Structures
1.
Amino acid sequence: MSDITSQALLAQLLVGLINGCFYAMLSMGLAIIFGLLNIINFAHGAQFMVAAFLTWMGFTQLPALLGTEFRINFWLALVLAPILVGAVSILLEKTLLKRLYHIDHLYGLLLTFGVSLMLEGLFRHFYGISGASYDPPPLLQGGVDLGFMYLPVYRAFVVVFSLAICAGTWYLFERTKLGALLRAGTENPKLLQAFGVNIPLMITLTYGFGVALAGVAGVMAAPTMQINPLMGSNLLNIVFAVVVIGGLGSILGAILTGLGLGLIEGLTKLLYPEASTVVVFVIMALVLLTRPAGLFGKEN
């Protein structure tokens, strides 16, 4: 421990915090979908990957496709990619998922797993698995010398923007009338429908919103990760562990657990690298042994 400098420690904490932000946003979307639809969305990682690819394609391939100089820059992609991914997910919900709500949850998991494999296979066919790079926008390039460490501007943006999205989503679902309706829809949808609330529409829009959160994370991940068809599935195992530890359906649990596990994983990579790939799952096992519903989940 004495050989570890404060600069190395802070740099690794920053990396862990950035990973934690992606874990929080992805697991938050999963928690929202499971909380209202009772479906484990196994396509979440693939939808995250598709948003990253759309960001890269809009900037690098659209000009050649259209024969013009027009490109979709990062800021425009941050709006368009989540909307497009969310819209396609709504089509998936309306055509396939809605047929599975009244049967065993396993069928929804299998369907979304199949969708995930199809998306990964499609992008692997056209783009391979070597990966593509995407530069941060000019406004967010470079860094700031804080004296004790060099802080990349884009990484600081990822942390601040992700925390803002997480806080805004938590407030929407926990402190607004719309959030109260959504929570009531998970408890007693038939009663809520009797009061004139369009439950099918609410479910559809909630699924689209949950997937759009994965889309936002995918756009922000494009400049920090190699964009390849497996980038989502590589994260998905950890994200599911985050959701289980935080408590299935708990938005606050997903946010706090995602951030916390990102920091723990970052510290583990510095102090004991061999354990960094399993530390999250060890924590999950310990939590399940002591609190099966998760840290923020409700006991039945």
2.
Amino acid sequence: MVYKQWGYGNSESTQTFPIKFTNSVIGIYGSKRAINYEYTFAATSITNTNFFMSTRNAEGNSRVIACNWLAIGQ
């Protein structure tokens, strides 16, 4: 069975899933809420309980930006 969880937080921080995924995380998708910034969303250090959310610009620099995220897992 596939489950979805979602949340909101600031980039450059660890995000904890509301409920632990039993088996694995299939993917995490995000969008930044700041319209005026050209930054991409990235999820790293993914476990069944949390992940690290970050944003990067074209030069690879980070900036704390509010983001929405959606996680899909089993």
3.
Amino acid sequence: MTAKKNKAGAKALAFYLLLAAVVGVSVFSGELNRAAPLPLGGEGYAALALLAFAILSWCLQLAPIAVTALAVLVLLPFTGLMDFAGVIQAGFGDSTFAFFLGVLLLSAAFQKTPLGRRIALLIFRVFGRAPRRVLLGLMLAGTLLAMWVTEVAAAAILYPLALSIVEQSRGRPDAEPLARTLMLGVAWGPAFGGVATPIATGANLVAVAYLEQYAGISISFGEWMGIGLPISFTLLAAGWLLLARELPRTAAPLELNSDIPPMGRKEAFLVTDFLLAILLWVAGGQIGLSSHHVALLAGLALFLPGIEVLDWKDAVRSISWDSIILICAGIVLGDVLYQYGVAEWMANLLFVPSLMQKGLFLTGAYIVLTVSVLKILFSSNTVAGVILVPIMITLAGQLDASAWAFVAPCIFSSALSFIVITSSPVNVIPYASGCFTPGDMARRGVVMTVAAAAIIAFWLAVLRVV
């Protein structure tokens, strides 16, 4: 107990020292720049101090991720880089806030009704009960769900199903590899779906906002899916082949509990609302509806009088507010990195420009592998996207290249966390089952990461993403 208290005390002390350092560097930024000039100038020192505080606090887990994100928003006015009204406007005033809120409300509805389980079990029935086929059905269900209701919600829906299968399979000769591969499938399937649409992860939403704001590039739902879908399903095939090797081809069929009540009124409305949202996300631009507007409309519809798919108070407790805060803070932090030249400085520090001009395939593979390594440092998919996307846009400008060609492999890679469990809540959910160890995931994850680099680079080259 004493050791635990000492560790908590050390983390608290480090957090406050970092806070003080940010303020101190900001106050004396001019003097620091005169003593050791940076291309960024005095304001660059303040921006770097803020970025260092965020990265160290997130990586060392000095405070919950959302607390650090809020601290970034509160600290910014003290640095002189942005006033408080500007901070709130840039973060919570961005339409991405409304977009992600609507998507999270839909995600909550999927978890609170049997619809997610019904879709997953339907896929199981289509694929059969052989262990390898069940694994494929589970991963495909995760991929399809994550495309529309976020990776985390998809994993949360599939986890109890997979756990039920594992429990029912106790005593089988292949029980251990079956449990391990199914739980890894719960993590990997939604991660593959996180590539397919711009709403599947928070980092995707941040990337779309950054591209429009800093590069003047508007990526529609259809344009994203035109690239994301083939990458997503190729990743799914590769991931399934990698995991299925551990399951005997001659294994006995599984017994699955498919006891789900008949579809009720609320569930039927959710299906209608969900399908209309997909239709409007893809084609709403033709009638003047932005994808952000559609997301909030779909979320609002769940609470309308006489419909009430969700109870408002229950939904508020179910929503991942820390994710919303992180995204809003991330948008502001990215704005600061871009405006004050920090993104340009980090681009030259973290990436070798000559390796970014080797053609679509080699450039894409290099970006994916580099981002995969950096994600281990940042310890969070969304954090990696927040920090790295402005760098990619800046680097593209320096090399007179397409910003989307650089951002696409970066953001697709940021959705995929195969090596470190703590990089994504999608990994943490199935890890709670105890069916696989960090080493189990890392060994298979390294192979999958290399495969992902090749797959993403291949499709970027084939589809001529420029």
